[in-house]
Amino acid sequence: FEEINTNPNSPEAIGPQFLLSNVISVAANENTYTQGFRLANYLAQYAASVEFERIDRYEMGSNAQYWNGIYRLLNDIESIQTNPATNEAYNAVADIMKAYLFSQLTDMWGDVPYSEALAAKSGVYNPAYDTQEKIYLDPEIGILALLKKSAATLNTTGTSIQGDMMFNNNLEKWRRFANSLRVRYILRISKRMTDFSELQALVDENELMLSNADNAVVPYLSSAPNQWPMSQSALGLYQEHRMTLTVDSVLKAWDDPRQLVLYKPTQKSVTDGNPEFKGLQNGLNRETINGRGINLNDISLFGAIFRDVPDGVDGQFMQYSELQFALAEAVARGYINGDAKAYYEKGIAASFDYYDTTIPAGYFERPNVALNRTDDLTKILTQKWLSLISNGHEAWFNIRRTGIPALTPGPDNLNDDKYPVRYLYPESEQAVNNENYQAAASRMGGDNINSKVWWEK
Amino acid sequence: NVYEGSIKDKNGLPIPGATIAETGTKNVAISDAEGKFRISSSSRDLSLRISFIGYETTTVAIQNGEFNGSITLLESTENLDEFVVTALGITREKQSLSSAVTTIGTRELSDVPQTNLINALSGQVAGVQITNGSSGVGSSSRIIIRGENSISGNNQALVVVDGVPISNEQITSDLFNDGANIQEVDFGNGAADINPEDIESLTILKGPGSAALYGARAANGVVLITTKKGKKKPGIGVSTSSLLTFDGLLTLPDYQNVYGGGSNGNYSFQNGIGAGVNDGGISSYGPKLDQGQLIAQFDSPSVDINGNPVRGGDVISRTNPDGSYTPITPTPWVSRPDNVRDFYRTGITSQNNIAISSGNENGGARLSYSNLRNEGILPNTDLKRDGIALSINQQLVEKLRVDLFSNYVNSRSGNRPNLGYGYENVQYGFNWTGRQTNIASLRDYWQAGQEGLQHYDFNYLWLTNPYLTLFENTNSFNKNRILGNLALTYDISDKLSLRVRSGLDNYSDLRKFKRAFSTNRRIYGGYREDQVKFSERNSDILLTYSDALNSKITYSVSAGANRLDQKINYSYTEAYQLALPGIYTLENSRVPLRGSSQIFEKRINSVYAFGNISLNSSLFLDLTLRNDWSSTLPEGNNSFAYYSGGLSYAFSDDIRLPKPISSSLVRFNVASVGNDTDPYQLNNTFQFNQNYGSFTRVTNGTVLNNPDLRPERLNSLEAGLELGFWKDRLLADLSVYQNTSINQIIGRPISTSSGFSNIIENGGEVRTRGLEASLKALMIEKRNFSWNLGVNFTKYISEVTELPEGVDQYVTGEASVFAGSGGSNSVFYIARKGGRIGDMYGSGFQEFEGQTIFGANGLPIQDGKLRLLGNYNPDFFMGLTNQFRYKGIELGFVFDWRSGGTIVSRTKALGSTSGVLQETLAGRETGVIGEGVMNVGTAENPQYVTNTTSVPASTYYNNFYDRGNEASALYDASYLKLRQLSIYYDLPMAWVSQIGFQKVRVGFVGSNLLLFTENPHFDPELNALQGRNITYGVEDMSYPSTRSFGFSIKTEF
Known about the structure:
The complex is a heterodimer.
Chain A: H1 16-43, E1 47-48, H2 64-81, H3 88-109, E2 112-113, E3 129-130, H4 132-137, H5 143-156, H6 171-188, H7 197-205, E4 216-219, H8 235-239, E5 242-243, H9 245-254, H10 258-262, H11 267-271, H12 286-291, E6 314-318, H13 320-332, H14 340-354, H15 376-387, H16 394-402, H17 427-432, H18 434-443
Helix pairs in contact in A: 1-2, 1-3, 2-3, 3-5, 3-6, 5-6, 6-13, 13-14, 13-15, 14-15, 15-16
Chain B: E1 2-9, E2 19-22, E3 28-30, E4 36-40, E5 46-51, E6 58-62, E7 70-73, E8 83-86, E9 90-93, E10 101-105, H1 106-110, E11 128-132, E12 141-145, E13 158-161, E14 164-166, E15 199-205, H2 208-211, E16 222-227, E17 233-249, E18 294-295, E19 301-303, E20 309-311, H3 315-318, E21 331-332, H4 339-343, E22 347-360, E23 363-375, E24 382-397, E25 400-413, H5 426-430, H6 466-471, E26 475-491, E27 496-519, E28 522-548, E29 553-575, E30 594-615, E31 619-630, E32 639-649, E33 661-675, E34 686-692, E35 695-700, E36 703-704, E37 712-725, E38 730-742, E39 745-749, E40 758-762, E41 765-781, E42 785-802, E43 809-816, E44 826-832, E45 839-845, E46 847-848, E47 851-854, E48 862-871, E49 876-886, E50 889-899, E51 902-905, H7 906-914, E52 928-929, E53 933-935, E54 944-946, E55 950-951, H8 953-960, E56 970-972, E57 975-986, H9 989-994, E58 999-1012, E59 1024-1026, E60 1029-1031, E61 1034-1035, E62 1042-1052
Parallel strand pairs in B: 1-7, 13-16, 36-40, 47-53, 51-61
Antiparallel strand pairs in B: 1-4, 2-3, 2-5, 5-6, 8-9, 10-15, 11-12, 13-14, 15-16, 17-22, 17-62, 18-21, 19-20, 22-23, 23-24, 24-25, 25-26, 26-27, 27-28, 28-29, 29-30, 30-31, 31-32, 32-33, 33-37, 34-35, 37-38, 38-41, 39-40, 41-42, 42-49, 43-44, 44-45, 45-48, 46-47, 49-50, 50-57, 51-56, 52-55, 53-54, ...
């Protein structure tokens, strides 16, 4: 009997490397395609919808698929860390991914199950929600503590990992990624912090990403099923993503050649023999577009890397440019000492380099680009914004925290002209974890898309 | 005194084997092959009782020894009720049974022959609920007896052929409509392979009590099929039946025909991706139709870049080197009210059967061949089925008897339609097809000069030409099945017999999915093969001892054992993109192949014993005992017992009853039945994810298994009363029951933040209480005219009486209602303590005192809170059957009435969003002011007044019917259907015998002829198939259901 009922289709035990491969690649794809390209690009106004993508009109929904997907990956991380074959290095790398995934949860939804989460095997089926403050700052298990601890472990460990398609099992790169994430998250909660010595120490130690070679990205492959999904999707879905007026005006103001990579000239202008880029205002419904006589054939689509080749983009977690912009901001705000301009220009250069684009001569001296101490933060954060295209919801988090760039909700938005600041909790939490759901929702000021999370208040 | 006579049927044919008994004595005779008999008696005044299965029992009085000798027996379906084939193939007198059973005879099954056997039960039997899949002939049908006992199980009745279970499972392909892959396909349920013409009778054992002997799977009731046998008859009998039916549409969404495709009243085609006016959009808020306007359309004439005539939609040939297009000559913008109706064709189904049978004193043999040919109502869809059945029943030597039934069935189709939400379901596409569209002009589905490479359509963004979908993107299958059983019975003595039996059910199903180049979401096409292999073996042994204690008490005891082995292999291999167009092989793959293979195996060992005692042939006591050991449960907990006891009492034999009452029976039954679970539910394993390049990926499953599972238990109580009035011309049968299901093994959804989405555990208690009543009346019986009426009524309520420790509500399932990323639009089936099974929850709008709240923009404000939408179960259902006979003409019909239940409709939501449905005409010119209130106060101090803000119709319908608002797409699922109609005529013997036949019967038959229901768009009876499961209470872009009628001819010679 026991033999008959032993599942021949799948293993009961497995080496940690196979789980790690899954966690990294699935998280990268989710963040970049499903979250970044399909959702956040509307919220951050890189993309405008022509009809169906109602998130552009701030009908947010719960994004339950991502919530469920993250917790499933976190469960894989549990399996890595409780695996008999695990070691210090696997544990530390798994902790880095764990910190990243929990930050996604709390930045998108606010309070989420954390300390009681992932304990179904111990009989905890309805975990309580922890406050965002605890999730970031708990001295033992908080995101910042986890990252610090794992960076330290990776500095000393003699063990190694396998299965890592992102850094090719290079633990130094993981260490630099962990420290760079610490910079990201310290800035994220900076409104709630007074002491930035940890940030200063991070800069001083110089254990951060050093160049684009340290980027935390997973390239898509030319071959199915690991292709960039938008290269395979319905044509209509691709055409739902249009260049926005917001990004159009910024790129025109900078006269920025990255435009040629990120977007396509309008079909009409190409046919007319005079290629030009044109953006669409966000948050318009089909009737308004038609009523205004907008010719969609004369609106730019996303660039060839997003459609015409299966491996034109990377699955991303973090780029070197983001780190540089973060440090520039930290200097500009006086959190740390240093040269804001140098960080800023390194960030821009890295972003150009990432898109294989050459910086035009005199770019840094252009009045809309050059820092001048009057609107430096706007310039730094706007350049940072552009560098975060398709990088999950990172640009949205930055806009919510800094208000830069200042975005205007579209005319046909369904949120009373308010800029949404979180997703709804999954409906399934109402059904299966209702008591804890209600407690968290009332603590946050209601489960709606306008309740600000702790770091934004 | 010796009396000689002969027994004939109404056509004058001899009836051999009939029993002739002198009442009040032990004198008995049996009619011979010519129907003749001889009986001696000591009396000159006597009465003879003549009986034979399938005929009405007749009593003939003889006075003063005068007897004319000729006796005619009338065919009867009622008589089948007296003897029923029960558990393990044992024939018993009906009145000895303590649990409700209903038997359906040949006539009900084959008068209006159904392509799916299960559908023949619709409306016929109290307590039995049949639901159909929505993809026409070949769809799955689901049979539920006495409601749903299990919160999350499949709840379907077990199908048993000649005492041996067969698979009625729907092993679906691993398809998910996730917006990128092949959509779901319904390949049918297992019982559909059985040819109705091979069935002698079909018995429904409703309660778990009468089913205790088939093991756990029978807890939901049993459909017992008894196959036809060769009868004792002189010579070789040949019977044939042929049926030809035509299927037309019974339902179709109620489309508007006033506005065409487009937006804001504007439309013009250029390239179908946005270069024209709104020609990238697919909604129907465009220019008014039939106003004499000329507008460029996809099928308007144009020229290619060399000046040759092409159609507007031949975009590639019209594209100049600079990217501009050749001009299109506008054509009239007119309504096409029947464009969708005309897309469908008349389905044609033929069913033919020929059977040869022969028999003598020692047994009989029967061989039959049947075929089914169907062309579906959707172009290029079909179903073909060929079956050969052989049955041999032979007394080999004295005391040793062999019974064999074997059936080989090949069923196949070149194309089964895709279901679900997406363009692969063409009915979905029609919701996005402007009402001006001449769909027929899409028939030539390749673009000029682009054969095999690029399809031709009115929109190239979201849809795929429906003809391409059906003619090129096919989903075929070919299934070979062998099922059968062999039994040897040895009569050790007069009283003791031993039976050894083995049954098997094996099938192999190869499914092929082709996708052509240029298919939306599949620009390089694709090819996939799915292989399903199923095997089940049941072997049993049974020892029976029967005796009489004295003249009043008889008894019988049996003991036996069974072994069940079941194995399922499922695998698929897919070329996700093709290298070369039009070649569908796995080698022709542009990318590495992907696939999966899985095996599921289980075994159950059982022993059982049962006995019954009869006192005076009026009081009967039944006891059964069984124990199973299942491989699917943990060692130490894998054994579970069943018990049942029943009492039935024909009290009119002992108690004086009012005169009209001619017969009576009360029944009581208690039973307790155990159950196991599916394989591999005990330990967690990791699952493979598709490789990332050369990196193997493995992940946790979403279900947390449980090594401490215990068997489930279902306890049932049942009482019944049967009364016959006026010599049984009116028969009433009433049953009440309570089924309590405890320790259910459920996959309980838990917070996904716990790491898993479901945990397998024992818990929960569901109590179903129900009532079934049926009446059968011989309303009129004259020499030339008779009228039989039957009414059946069913009502049940399943309540959740207990939930697992610490759980206040329990989600039993989820039906997704598609939305873009970020949305979460599901219907949740939630069981609350005290709540009904089948309660559906979803989201809707914010409300104030029951009124919808509208925002300042005039649009309803969405509210993500789950609310009760309704329950998918009916309040009650009824069937009405009628049978009239006038001379040689018979007329029969069946009505089917379902009252209550809610259905969430995606056709309604989508069709209203897109603007194709009739109801979206309101407010097109004037705007729509939504019915509800708006807040003129502040958020803190709201002040609600009647909403007065007008918004354009398209904006309003887009928001109100947005697919997230399940609450705005509800229908009452009640309906009344004329389910079956048949008119048969037996050609007079005089004609028939001249052409060498013994019997010729011709008829007109019809199915689903009329439907009355509140919802104008679709048949509320159809269920959706989502993922790998049938989904209840949610309509998911269902195809129209069909009305069929045709002709039948049956002969015997």
